Amino acid sequence: MFCLQNLAISEPVTIGSLPHVAPILLFIISAVFGIRYSKRYLNEQQQNRVFNWLGILISGSIIVYHFYKISAGNYNFATDLPLFLCSFMALVIPVFTQTKRYWLYEVLLFWVIAGTTQGIITPDISEGFLSLDYVRYWIVHLGLVSIMLYATFVFGMRPTLKSVFKSFLALQVYAVVILILNWMLNANYSYLSRKPESASAMDFLAEWPYYILQIELIVLPYFFLIFLLFRERKTKQ
User: Fold this and answer.
1) Between 161-185 and 102-121, two packed helices, what is the crossing angle to 10 degrees?
2) Which of 25, 44, 66, 223 is most buried as measured by Cβ atoms within 10 A of its Cβ?
3) 147 lies in a domain?
4) Any stretches that span the bilayer, and where are they (predicted)?
5) What is the count of structural domains for the chain?
6) Rounded Cα–Cα distance for residues 61 and 153 (Å)
7) Cα 48-51-53 angle, rounded to 5 deg
């Protein structure tokens, strides 16, 4: 993996470019094939093994990336800790893949689908194709979605209306903890202390702290939409 870093393209990934579109297309093909194959040909033990290895792969990519950053000697606790929502989920996802706790599914489904959507559509990758950051970014974002789709369609987990509010409440706890850490570290994890310096959709929102309230008003309906997409359908008799 470190050899790939030497072959990396230095330019950032641009929206609609081949390095942006290719991993998404590969993900769609792999997810459809992998889920169908698992449901038809794998027994429960084999399905669990696939699920566990997905979690290890995603979490491992985060760990390797941060060890690399530390070894490079430019690790900054105010910017580099895995505290952004997607990185945090990637770090702890093996807990879900190992235990398959339903309450974790309830929380993570909404976090993953809502949290990775913008990252997949508008990737923020400072180094281009084949860089360690590039590989880590797509493993995390597309891998998290893969796990939630696998849990839904292979293991049959489905959210309820209560799941929307459980996940939203858990998100408030996460936000409070991150706000405290941001204050302690003079950091801006999850952009809860100020807007990102680069252009983003948050530019259309009010200034801090009011944009946090605006995001809250957006998140709950968004979670409800995710519930409608993933809820269990009643079959007609």
Assistant:
1) 70
2) 223
3) yes
4) 20-38, 50-68, 74-96, 103-122, 134-156, 168-191, 211-230
5) 1
6) 25
7) 110
* Tokens matching residue 173: 């706890």
Type of residue found at 118: Q
C-alpha span between 28 and 8 (Å, rounded): 24
Kindly report the CA angle at 109 between 106 and 127, in degrees rounded to 5? 145
Instruction: Cite the DSSP H helix spans in 122-187.
Output: 132-153, 161-185
- 89 residue type, one letter: M
Answer whether residue 182 is part of any domain.
yes
Phi, psi dihedral angles at 7 (to 5 degrees): -95, 0
DSSP assignment of 87-109 equals HHHHHHHHHHHHH--HHHHHHHH
Phi-psi group of 73: left, alpha or beta (phi > 0 → left; psi -120 to 50 → alpha; rest → beta)? left
Cβ atoms < 10 Å from Cβ of 128: 17
pLDDT digit string, tens, across residues 120-146? 887 877 777 778 888 999 999 999 999
Residue 235 lies in a domain: no
How far separated are the first and last CA of the chain, in Å rounded? 53
Whole-structure pTM value? 0.90
Q: Examine residue 236 and state whether it is found in any structural domain, yes or no.
A: no
Range of the structural domain that residue 132 is part of: 2-230
